[in-house]
Write a structure and sequence with these properties.
The complex is a heterodimer of chains A (321) and B (640). Chain A is α/β, with parallel strands linked by helices and 321 residues long. Chain A has helices spanning 22-36, 55-58, 71-81, 93-99, 101-110, 155-162, 175-187, 209-213, 246-260, 281-288, 313-317; strands spanning 43-47, 62-65, 86-92, 115-120, 123-124, 130-131, 166-171, 192-197, 229-231, 267-274, 303-304, 307-308, 310-311. In chain A, helix 1 (22-36) packs across helix 7. In chain B, strands 6-5-4-1-3-2-16-7 form an eight-stranded mixed beta sheet, with helices on both faces. Chain B has a seven-stranded mixed beta sheet with strand order 11-8-12-13-15-14-21, with helices on both faces. A six-stranded mixed beta sheet of chain B has the order 18-20-19-22-23-24, with helices on both faces. Chain B is α/β, with parallel strands linked by helices and 640 residues long. The chains are: A alpha/beta (321), B alpha/beta (640).
């Protein structure tokens, strides 16, 4: 039985701009949680700062709206202290790839079992449309005084280079595909990254819904637009590292990097890379602390009434003179 | 100088960083402690991995000691730098054990000596008409009465090689440390078995090395007692007090965290704080009474911003969580501290201060971060700033800090410092039965829906859910929020929420017991006000003054924010002269005192060289005040 989708929605007024891609993303998250039937109290949405940061308030699970660029740090702390939780972190492209880029890379190295979505619209919306790290060099979106002088970062390639073990791209206006990608990301054992192309109708007048649909690129014969977005799975692309061998891993990493460089006329969506042969952080720590998953920090008893019940006598006797 | 007891001497060993100075000091301290003697040692080192000068000073006494003194009773040097650096600190009736090969070394040849030091030392030797060599420095010391013990460590090693039929011994210069300790203890008359026990204990993880060092120690001890006349001062065993431990400062908060139920720590490497985190990781699994082995999950984060973010995330699950850092790291944590403040998340930040600003003196002591700890972060939110005065307080206060954090649902900054971190001392074994665990309004279950994380309550503290709890869903945001935790910019709500949070400061002042707010070490006409690790030198100085017939009071403030001014006013009511003592440049506690106490500090005794105060210099400066010969501000300078 599918849980009631309405249970995952809050009554908080949503103040995103009309037509904003964010609506599709929040719907897809709610649909994914409902379809997976994750109890509301066992899920937590962590978010950064900016328009995307408000996401956690619209979803009726635990919701933690953190600091600019720091969402992954809060989310990892919570997940590691209570590994029973399903954690989805969400943030903007400026949040995750600008101010938070160091945490992005470090999180990839850890591979904590959770999901991270970047709402990628190439602008800083809430501060009135400055260029974000994913805006292409030379573009001048409408509120920029001059064209962008920085090169853009490639989020998919950065995620792969950093060690994320599930790397995918969705599109905010394809909610069904996005929902499926979120489910796959949540079910993935390890850190999953989802780059979500999310047109900002107010400040990004270049990478618009019409642009992604190819409305500026009409096929002369069929008189139909040639959509930029296409799905990797429709091309027979296999993102999965099936066996734990360096050759297999190299092959899958390389093809994902090549795919990640497609942009101007053809933009792939779907899963670029998936590797469950790399142990998640929790598993690595379980080798050090054997009962970690049964008795994680959040579940440990530390007192009986107000009496401390930890035995420190061994620590002290080693210091005795 | 008026020392406190019949045995009271300071032994200093120095050498290049990475050369085993610390091992030698641990053997020395362990041997003394094993004879029932009290030990107080401190380590000084450069920001460097190998080669720069580091040294360890160990003070030994048969009575309780809580600080170092100015002056060295026995200096041990097998490198030229150690001798040049410390020779003038050897007291007139003290001794120097030195490598005979070094006598011709010129001061200019020692590359690691700072030019400023060289300049000062050359001037000094020239004024005594001595050559600028080790020999010159030794001669100058000898003229003051210092006893010289020339030793050829090379010859000892070579004899050892012959004796043990192990030719490799000849080149084992690393063992000079153990030889030096053995000679020192021979001269000081400590029984050899305590030396050997201590060697075994220090090398307990490496059996073959232990054996080799044991043999070397035994041989050298006998060599020294046969060759040299006994030193004027002797160490005699006294009855061991049961339950004494020899412990380093960073271990006190580490053990305190494990005992208090802290189960998550995240940190970024920084001197002098990361020793604590490494200690926790080394002891990450421990026994718990419920027969389920407990553990502390230690994460080395990518920076301090991440460290505090993770700690907040962990705390939201109901886990007791903390980070440990020093000034530069704490600077990076300021924004997240405010997030914890507005979202009422209990976290503990253990702040091992060092000298700032910026990188400052990265391996040296300081108490420069008091006002920063009180004010770090934008906006207004309540926090508790709590300072420990010594190693034992470090343990017990750690438990208190977690209780404050959970009782009042706010960030707590536990002030420690480099002096405490790298002190090794004999103290009474920590007693876990003396700590309590108070989890405040943390909920284990919620029966009905409709939970509001920031619901109003009579004392301003709301029942606290945790991630995962059924019916306990809440939202957090760094924005101002309503009772559920959703963003609200409503002006009336803003007043409610600001007042609710601010009230916690008043509540803390009401609920925290007075004896935990400040320690009254005695109140007299002249009364010291201070905080943190100045406690030891101050208490020792006060005892020295007592022998001279002077009475000086001392109030040690532990709760620094919110500032307990009402209680302090009752303590200072009859005090005539207030003396502020701190290890910083501006007298930061003094400025709080002046602001909150309706009166002013009369005298300041400050030190900001990065070296901790000795009781001797505190004694000297207090004496000047008592004799009405002091400037309003005295700046202390002892130590290299």
């Amino acid at each position: 039985m599918v849980s009631n989708l309405a249970d995952y929605k809050t009554e908080v007024h949503n103040d995103w701009c009309p037509g904003c891609g964010d609506f599709g993303i929040v719907n897809a998250i709610q649909m994914a949680l409902a379809e997976m039937e994750i109890p509301r109290n066992k899920a937590a949405i962590f978010s950064g700062i900016g328009c995307s940061g408000k996401t956690s308030h619209f979803i009726n699970t635990y919701g933690v709206h953190t600091l600019h660029g720091r969402v992954l740090t809060f989310a990892q702390g919570a997940k590691l202290a209570n590994p029973e939780m399903t954690i989805v972190a969400a943030g903007g492209d400026g949040d995750g790839l600008g101010i938070g880029a160091g945490h992005f890379v470090a999180a990839g190295r850890r591979n904590v079992d959770m999901t991270y979505l970047i709402f990628n619209n190439a602008v800083y919306g809430l501060t009135k449309g400055q260029a974000s790290p994913t805006l292409k060099l030379g573009l001048k979106t409408k509120s920029l005084p001059e064209p962008n002088v920085n090169q853009s970062v490639n989020p998919i390639a950065l995620a792969i280079a950093s060690g994320f073990t599930f790397v995918a791209r969705g599109y905010a206006y394809d909610v069904r595909q996005l929902k499926d990608l979120i489910i796959a990301a949540v079910r993935h054992k390890g850190l999953a990254f989802l780059d979500v192309l999310q047109p900002c109708p107010t400040y990004n007048d270049i990478n618009t819904r019409d642009w992604f649909a190819g409305m500026d690129n009409i096929d002369e014969i069929t008189k139909k637009p040639r959509p930029r977005i296409y799905k990797l799975e429709d091309t027979g692309y296999d993102p999965v590292v099936h066996i734990d061998s360096p050759e297999e891993e190299n092959e899958k990493l390389t093809q994902a990097l090549i795919k990640s460089n497609e942009w101007d006329t053809k933009i792939p969506t779907g899963i670029f890379y998936r590797n469950e042969t790399t142990a998640p952080y929790e598993e690595r720590m379980s080798e050090r602390i054997p009962n970690y998953l049964e008795n994680p920090p959040a579940k440990q008893e530390i007192s009986s009434g107000s009496r401390a019940i930890t035995n420190i006598s061994k620590l002290l006797s080693s210091l005795e003179v | 100088m008026n020392l406190l007891s019949s045995i009271d001497l300071t032994w200093v060993i120095g050498g290049p960083q990475g050369g085993g100075v610390e091992t030698a000091a641990n053997i020395f301290a362990g041997a003394c402690a094993g004879c029932g003697l009290k030990v107080f040692g401190k380590r000084e080192y450069y920001s460097n991995i190998k080669g720069e000068h580091s040294y360890f000073g160990v003070r030994v006494s048969d009575k309780i000691i809580r600080s170092n003194v100015s002056g060295i009773t026995i200096l041990v040097g097998f490198d030229a730098e150690t001798l040049f650096r410390h020779i003038e600190d050897v007291v007139n009736d003290g001794a120097i054990v030195y490598e005979t090969d070094l006598t011709s070394v010129k001061i200019d040849e020692v590359a690691t000596l700072d030019d400023l030091f060289k300049q000062r030392f050359v001037e000094y030797l020239s004024s005594k008409n001595k050559p600028t060599t080790i020999q010159g420095a030794l001669d100058s010391a000898k003229e003051r009465g210092v006893t010289l013990y020339p030793v050829s460590f090379k010859t000892i090693l070579s004899n050892l090689a012959d004796e043990t039929k192990n030719p490799k011994m000849r080149g084992m210069f690393r063992m000079q440390n153990v030889l030096a300790v053995s000679i020192s203890l021979g001269l000081l008359g400590l029984p050899p078995d305590t030396l050997l026990t201590s060697v075994d204990s220090v090398f307990s993880r490496k059996k073959d090395i232990a054996e080799m060092n044991r043999n070397a120690a035994n041989y050298t001890y006998n060599f020294a007692t046969a060759k040299y006349p006994k030193f004027k001062y002797q160490l005699t065993p006294i009855s061991k007090q049961p339950g004494t431990i020899l412990v380093q400062g960073f271990q006190s908060t580490g053990i305190g965290k494990i005992a208090s139920g802290c189960r998550f720590q995240s940190y970024y490497p920084i001197t002098p704080a990361s020793d604590e985190s490494v200690y926790l990781e080394l002891h990450e699994i421990f026994d718990v009474e419920n027969n389920r082995p407990g553990s502390i999950f230690v994460v080395q984060a990518e920076d301090e911003i991440s460290a505090i973010g993770m700690v907040i995330g962990a705390a939201l699950t109901g886990t007791r969580a903390s980070t440990s850092t020093s000034g530069p790291g704490f600077s990076l944590m300021a924004e997240a501290l405010g997030w914890a403040g507005i979202n009422e998340v209990p976290i503990v930040v253990t702040l091992y201060q060092r000298s700032g600003p910026s990188t400052g003196l990265p391996t040296r002591h300081g108490q420069d971060d008091l006002l920063f700890a009180i004010h770090a972060g934008h906006g207004e939110f309540p926090r508790i700033v709590y300072a420990s005065g010594d190693i034992e307080e470090g343990f017990y206060d750690t438990a208190k800090c977690f209780n404050f954090a959970e009782n009042f649902q706010l960030p707590v900054i536990h002030m420690m410092d480099k002096f405490i971190a790298s002190t090794v001392a004999t103290v009474q074994k920590f007693d876990i039965n003396k700590i309590s665990i108070e989890r405040g309004k943390l909920l284990d279950k919620i029966d009905t829906p409709g939970y509001k994380r920031f619901a109003p309550s009579s004392d301003g503290i709301s029942p606290r859910s945790r991630l995962g709890l059924e019916n306990g869903i809440f939202w957090n945001t760094g924005d101002e929020s309503d009772e559920y935790g959703h963003i609200s910019e409503d002006p009336v709500n803003r007043i409610t929420m600001m007042d609710k949070r601010a009230h916690k400061a008043e509540l803390a002042l009401q609920k925290i017991p007075k004896e935990d707010q400040a320690i009254n070490h005695g109140i007299y006409d002249f009364c010291i006000v201070s905080w943190g690790s100045t406690k030891g030198p101050i208490l020792d100085a006060i005892e020295m003054l007592k022998k001279d017939g002077h009475k000086v009071g001392f109030i040690q403030i532990k709760l620094l924010n919110p500032f307990p001014s009402d209680y302090l006013k009752t303590l200072f009511e009859n005090v005539k002269t207030v003396i502020d003592i701190e290890a910083n440049h501006s007298g930061q506690l003094g400025s709080l005192f002046n602001e909150y106490m309706d009166r002013k500090v009369d005298y300041y005794i400050l030190k900001y060289t990065g070296r901790p105060m000795t009781c001797t210099e505190v004694y000297d400066s207090l004496k000047k005040i008592l004799e009405n010969k002091a400037e309003r501000k005295q700046v202390l300078t002892y130590g290299v």
